[in-house]
Design a protein that fits this description.
The protein has 141 residues and is an all-alpha fold. The chain is built from 1 helix and no strands.
């Protein structure tokens, strides 16, 4: 059984003083450090979330800008292709016109040379036929 004597009272007072001293010098500073650390962690998490949000915003802006640049590049590429096609058509039309003109010139030249050859052959044929007739008849015509 428990004896309630002076030693027990002394030990109880000693225990309460020890709890009071430990609370003042140990538990309160530790709780304060833990609360400060939790506050710092919370602040760091908020700052991290803010930085992450800013990064996401900048990434979205970057992607939007890249889409705009790609679209403008595609438009410019289309314009350049149309210009190139127009230039190609103009060059081909010019080449066709020159070829047609050259062909017409060559045909005219060939027709002229053909006519000259016919005239020459006609004259030669007349002279040759006259010579043949003279030889066959044995007299001059």
């Amino acid at each position: 059984m428990i004896n309630l004597d002076l030693a027990f009272v002394f030990q109880l007072v000693n225990f309460l003083v020890l709890v009071l001293l430990l609370n003042v010098f140990l538990y309160k500073p530790i709780r304060k450090q833990l609360a400060d650390r939790a506050g710092e962690l919370s602040g760091a998490k908020q700052k991290s979330a803010e930085v992450d949000r800013e990064v996401q915003e900048k990434l979205a802006a970057y992607e939007a800008r890249m889409r705009e640049i790609r679209a403008s590049a595609a438009d410019e590429r289309g314009v350049l292709k149309k210009e190139a096609a127009a230039q190609e058509a103009a060059i081909l039309d010019k080449a066709r016109a020159e070829a047609t003109q050259s062909l017409a010139s060559i045909k005219a030249k060939v027709a002229k040379e053909t006519e000259e050859a016919r005239q020459l052959l006609k004259q030669s044929a007349e002279a040759l036929s006259a010579d043949i007739c003279e030889k066959v008849l044995g007299r001059s015509l």
